[in-house]
Amino acid sequence: xxxxxxxxxxxxxxxxxxxxxxxxxxxxxxxxxxxxxxxxxxxxxxxxxxxxxxxxxxxxxxxxxxxxxxxxxxxxxxxxxxxxxxxxxxxxxxxxxxxxxxxxxxxxxxxxxxxxxxxxxxxxxxxxxxxxxxxxxxxxxxxxxxxxxxxxxxxxxxxxxxxxxxxxxxxxxxxxxxxxxxxxxxxxxxxxxxxxxxxxxxxxxxxxxx
Length: 210
Known about the structure:
It is a single chain. About 35% of the residues are buried. Mean pLDDT is about 90; it is low at about 200 and about 205-210. It is built from five helices and 13 strands. Helices cover about 20% and strands about 25% of the residues. The strands form three sheets. A six-stranded mixed beta sheet has the order 5-6-9-10-12-11, covered by helices on one side. A five-stranded mixed beta sheet has the order 4-3-2-1-13. Helix 1 (about 35-45) links the parallel strand 2 (about 30) and strand 3.
């Protein structure tokens, strides 16, 4: 399965300099937030696949992007993949998609029964990072401890987030945390998820920006 990840910055490669066919061949697009509704609508129109998204802290849309599927506070199944979504970031000011640690922990807890019923999740999609996994100490870019705890206890194959821009300095695109591959989706990133367990474990080494 070929998956395109987007977050935070509208990609000129995919938008301003779009050429027919650039978005063909993807099976799924996942947005980790802070992208214009018009941009998401463009992507889903030009691609022959669904687009799942969570909200970023700046996503106070006057309307939700048409043709796209919000997975905030949900677990969806797609082509055998169990995908969980929790948008928003650590609360550093008033905002619709700003959460304290305790508020985010309650959101995680509400999904836990379904997670356990499904036997876990394959992809955990968030806007904010997990605490101490490529986050920062400043409140606006601090990760959630409950995300780290969830990754430890449920071991999703992938934890995908945005919010930490590449322009902030040395920000890892890919990293490993215990059994989970962590991907920063800022701007755009694509990877192929294979069927066999051996290939799934090696996916991070074969993933490329494209």
